[in-house]
Amino acid sequence: MQRTSFDDMRCPIARSLERVGEWWSILILRDAMLGMTRFDDFQASLGIAPNMLTRRLRALTDAGLLERVRYSEKPPRYEYVLTPRGRDFRPVLVALMAWGNRHFAVEGQAMQLIDELTGDIVEPVMVDAKTGEPIDRARHAMHAGPAADERTHARVEAYLQRRAQQHAASKTSSQ
C-alpha cells in the first residue's frame, strides 16, 4: 500500500506529519534530544531493525531535522546531530510526554520535566508568547491563515461554526 503524502496540503499539521508522523521518527528525535547521535546507540535504544533505522535517519536528515556529520574517516562513520529545526521539535516532545503521563502512564510517570534550578517537577503548558497567557479552548481558536486554501478554509469555518453553536448552547444552559 502506497503511503499518502501530505506535502501538498496547505496545513501546517499535515506538513509536519509528513516529516515526523512515523512513530520511529518521533522516537529517534526523542533519543536525539536525550543526546544520542550514533546509529548503534539509536538501534540499541529503540530495538529497531537496521534497514528501518537507516530509512528513518535518512528521512529526518532530508527533512532538515538531523544533520549527518562524519566523525571517523577509517572506517567512515557518521553521527546524526539535531539541527535548529530539529531542536525546535522539543516542545512537541515535551507536550507528548506530558499528555502521555496524564492519560496513559497507568504504572506511573516514566519521564518527567524537572526545573533544574529548584528540583521541582514541571507541568508544561502552552502559552501565548506575547501575553504569557496559557492557551486554552475557551479563549483561543484556530483560524485560517493568509496562505490557507479552500479546503482549509472550509475545515476551519465548519470548526468555528460548531464552536459558536457550543458556546451558544453553554450560555443558554447556564442561564
From TrEMBL:
Domain of life according to the entry: Bacteria
Record Pfam families: HxlR
Residues covered by the HTH hxlR-type domain: 11-108
SUPFAM superfamilies: Winged helix' DNA-binding domain
Keyword annotations from UniProtKB, A to Z: DNA-binding, Transcription, Transcription regulation
Membrane-spanning parts: none
PANTHER family, per database record: TRANSCRIPTIONAL REGULATOR, MARR FAMILY, TRANSCRIPTIONAL REGULATORY PROTEIN
Name assigned to this protein: Transcriptional regulator
Native organism taxonomy: Bacteria, Pseudomonadati, Pseudomonadota, Gammaproteobacteria, Lysobacterales
